[in-house]
Amino acid sequence: MIEGIVEDMELSLHKENLKKYLQRQLENHFPDRKTGKYFRGKDVDHAFDMGLCRLENCFKHVILPAYSNDAGQTFFSHLHSDQYAQFLYYFMNSLWKESQNRLICDKTMLLLRDLNGIFMTYKCEMPDIFLFQHAVGTVVGNAVFSDYLLILQNVTINTGVEQDRLGTVKIGRGVTRSPGAKIISDEPIGDRVNIGVDAVVYKTKIENDKTVIRDREGKIVIRDNKFCMAQRHFRDVIT
Within a 10 A sphere around the Cβ of 25, how many other Cβ atoms? Predict the structure, then answer.
């Protein structure tokens, strides 16, 4: 990946039209007449390019045909809600790192919530390789995330229950959060962990290669992991 340069990703809109599309969305959702003043300049241009570059790098690792193919071609559609959600994150995070352009970062964060029902801040450090899949109703807090992260709908990640550990909890590679899964914990989550539907991890350390489920009686059960669910979505072998 060359910094700020999209190599070969097929875009549903030309880059300049995509940029205008995002600007119009911000203006229409937040009509305070300030967007145009701040959605310009080298910082926005660079963050926009970096957002697409980071998106391309991520999508190269996704198996799903809407994202990439075996020949290495990647695809991005502004009308694919999950793809667009990831682009909004990459853009606002890149812009925050570039210039702390708070007005546009705040508006993009709120646009992500309005369009997709996902709440996460532009300060959140997501991994290079992750995937939102129908992630409506999801709240992503700060943590030390690792690659091959899969997040589905109605997921809550609230790490650092104790104030002095906010954003410091490590979540391993190849972790899947199924619909309704919740992590409310100060303890690390290992590699290749599946957190099942409606399962809650509360202040509990989860070792590598485990599956966390809620059984029929509503009890949380931790058992050995027979298969890493993230491998169904990502091209690379997760080790």
Answer: 19
